[in-house]
Design brief:
By secondary structure, the chain is mainly alpha-helical. The protein has 26 helices and two strands. The longest helix has 102 residues. It comes from Timema tahoe.
Length: 744
């Protein structure tokens, strides 16, 4: 404890000593501290003041800082928005472009834009909802583009159907101009003179339709007249969409339907050339369009398909043209149809189509054309025949004589040496018909131009048609003329003479045909004598019958004047007056037969003799004549002798005409000679003198003789008359027995 206390005291002393040592410093520190306190207070007030001032100034900085932070955040958002919008804007721009293209009907670019949108831009904005909506709409948009492009295609098909005739007209006009220019190059100038007019109306062969809307200044082709872009567009669109085959099938199907519509001819097409033009222009337009699509459509139409359509169309075209041309009866219209078909052939052949069937059709139409020509010339022939007087041509001057020779090739040395006035053996009918036949030949040749026929074929066709014209048409007109009761006998004779000269002139017609066709003359003349000599055989046969009929009717006029006294006691000693007039008439008629063909004159003469013989025989056997005296029979015998000619016309064999009087002559000889024993003895034998006297005929005549004898009151008093009467009864009895035997 002491130690502790000493220790404490030691430490206290140390503390005190230390305190003493540091006391002054402590006092100084206190003093300094006191000073510091005041300074601290001053500093504190300054700090407070500064703090207040700092607080005041920091408040605006804080506000600005917050504004700056906000601005930085906005800026960041803007940058993000810009970045995102830069990704979306191409999508939206492309979509807007798509909508615009569809609105403008630019479907193929729209389809390309749609593909770009789908594969390039939409994947970049796949996180946005609108991109999903767009993705869902893309198939619908594609379908809309398909439908819209198909709608445009349908509009195109409708327009092309309307414009096809126009396209065809332009194409055919180009072909016609090209042909004319080719012909012009061959000639002296490119612009050649117009084609010669046809022989009917004077019109130029091929003229564009008056109603044509074609303007020479609008020299447009098919692609200029029609916008084909809808087809190409639709083809590209369907190709891109993988539906090319569907589109090809649809297009071809629709065009085939349109082809069938185009190939249906108007019902009244055959009436005017305008109907044929409209029909053919439509067909040409259709196939020109298809040819253009073939060349520019990237395989949409191929040659196989086009050939199939053309072959289907060709048969219908041929049938339609064949049917409607068959209704045509106007040769001028048929020429126009031929020229139209020729231009149609050339136009389509230039486009690569086969037109051989159409050339075959033209050959058929040519035959119908020749028939129509014949019908036309039938009217011409009838007019000539109706106006003709059938009197030989008589000329009074050399000019008139030369004029006749210019129109008909006739040479007669004897006629040339005669002085004027001169008379030709033929009537004006001959040169008129000859000139009309030449006109017919020109008309036939007109149709054969440009048909690719050889000279020989043209020559044969014209010869055949000319032969038919004369042998059928003209002969038919003559046959109709002969049936007219107003035609006199001398006129019929003159017509037969005229036909003879026309037959002789056929050699000149053949030379004329050879000259205009350029075919060799050899090989045709050999058949002329066989064919041409019987050219008017039918007409001549009709004329012969008419001559015979008219001659018989004329003879009947004389025979009706018969005035026999059937109870005549003695004959007059000369021929009856009506027989004398009849013979005089026959002599004048036979004189007019001079220029007739011998066989015609001979036939007419035979017919006249036969008719006279039968008529005289019928006079005696008529039921109206009840009794006949021997004097009357002797007078009839005298008249018959006068009628039995020797050779009224040249060329008849001796005794030929007497055969027609055989029945009458044998009957009269039997009664004149009363040679009944010979008759009964030789009856039935081939060498019988009275072979043509039949028992019934003799019975009728004997009955009439017996009736006449009854009128003689005193005849029964004479023994000779009684014997004659008994003989007559005996003869009658035997004749009746012969008649009964012949019937059995």
């Amino acid at each position: 404890m002491e130690r502790l206390d000493s220790r404490i005291k030691s430490h206290d002393k140390d503390i005190e000593r230390m305190c003493n040592y540091h006391y002054q410093g402590f006092i100084d520190s206190i003093r300094e501290l006191l000073q510091v306190r005041s300074q601290a207070k001053s500093l504190n007030s300054e700090v407070v003041q500064l703090d207040e001032e700092l607080q005041a100034s920091a408040a605006s900085v804080i506000v600005k800082g917050e504004e700056l932070v906000q601005a930085r955040r906005v800026e960041s958002n803007i940058a993000a928005a810009i970045e995102n919008l830069s990704l979306c804007l191409p999508v939206l721009t492309t979509y807007a472009k798509l909508q615009k293209q569809m609105k403008e009907k630019r479907y193929y670019p729209a389809l390309k834009t749609l593909e770009q949108l789908e594969h390039l831009y939409l994947p970049r904005v796949a996180n946005y909802r609108f991109s999903h909506q767009m993705k869902e709409n893309i198939p619908k948009l594609r379908e809309n583009i398909k439908e819209a492009s198909m709608s445009d295609l349908k509009d195109f098909l409708e327009n092309i159907r309307k414009f096809s005739p126009k396209i065809g007209e332009v194409a055919m006009r180009h072909t016609a101009e090209h042909l004319r220019s080719d012909l012009g190059v061959v000639g002296k100038k490119k612009r050649q003179a117009p084609a010669p007019p046809n022989p009917f109306t004077g019109e130029i062969d091929y003229e564009p339709p008056a109603e044509s809307t074609y303007d020479a200044e609008e020299d447009l082709s098919a692609q200029d007249l029609i916008d084909f872009s809808p087809v190409y567009r639709c083809l590209h669109i369907y190709s891109v969409l993988g539906s090319r085959e569907t589109f090809e099938t649809y297009y071809r199907k629709q065009r085939k339907k349109q082809a069938r519509l185009v190939l249906q001819p108007p019902t009244n097409m055959h009436e005017t050339i305008a109907g044929y033009r409209a029909y053919i222009h439509g067909i040409v337009g259709f196939f020109v369009v298809e040819d253009h699509v073939l060349n520019t459509g990237n395989g949409l139409v191929n040659r196989t398909y086009l050939d199939e359509v053309w072959n289907m169309a060709l048969s219908k075209i041929v049938n339609a043209l064949r049917t409607h041309s068959a209704y045509c009866t106007d040769a001028t219209l048929m020429l126009k149809i031929k020229n139209l078909i020729m231009l149609f052939n050339t136009t389509l052949r230039n486009y690569g189509y086969s037109v051989n069937q159409l050339f075959d059709l033209l050959h058929e139409i040519r035959e119908h054309y020749n028939e129509v020509l014949m019908q036309r010339w039938v009217q011409v022939f009838r007019e000539i025949l109706d106006e003709e007087s059938y009197l030989p041509i008589q000329v009074s001057s050399q000019a008139e004589y030369d004029n006749v020779l210019e129109t008909f090739p006739f040479h007669d040395q004897a006629l040339e040496q005669l002085s004027f006035p001169k008379r030709f053996p033929f009537s004006p009918l001959v040169p008129k018909i000859y000139q009309q036949v030449k006109e017919f030949i020109y008309a036939c040749l007109k149709f054969s131009e440009d048909l690719n026929l050889s000279q020989g074929e043209v020559d044969d066709m014209i010869r055949k048609s000319t032969n038919l014209l004369l042998s059928r048409s003209f002969s038919g007109c003559l046959s109709s003329l002969f049936r007219k009761p107003s035609l006199a006998l001398l006129q019929v004779i003159q017509i037969i003479i005229d036909t003879g000269y026309l037959e002789e002139a056929t050699v000149y017609l053949e030379e004329f045909v050879s000259n205009i066709t350029g075919a060799p003359k050899e090989g045709h003349m050999s058949g002329r004598s066989q064919g041409q000599s019987c050219m008017f055989r039918v007409a001549r046969d009709d004329a012969e019958r008419q001559i015979c009929d008219k001659l018989k009717r004329k003879l009947d006029e004389f025979l009706e004047l018969e005035n026999y006294d059937w109870l005549l006691v003695e004959p007059r000693g000369h021929a009856s007056s009506f027989i004398t007039d009849l013979i005089a008439f026959l002599q004048s008629i036979f004189l007019s037969f001079t220029n007739l063909p011998p066989e015609v004159a001979q036939e007419a003469c035979k017919s006249a003799c036969e008719h006279i013989a039968k008529s005289v025989l019928n006079f005696m056997l008529s039921d109206d004549v009840k009794q006949i005296s021997m004097g009357a029979l002797q007078q009839i015998n005298l008249d018959t002798i006068q009628c039995e000619p020797s050779e009224p016309v040249p060329g008849l064999q001796e005794g030929v005409l007497l055969q027609y009087f055989a029945d009458l002559r044998q009957l009269l000889d039997l009664f004149m000679t009363w040679d009944w024993p010979t008759y009964f003895h030789d009856y039935g034998q081939d060498n019988s003198k009275y072979q043509q006297v039949y028992p019934n005929t003799a019975i009728i005549l004997l009955d009439k003789l017996r009736e006449a004898d009854k009128k003689t009151v005193f005849s029964v008093l004479k023994k000779s008359e009684r014997d004659k009467k008994k003989l007559l009864e005996t003869v009658l009895k035997q004749l009746r027995q012969l008649a009964q035997t012949a019937q059995q």
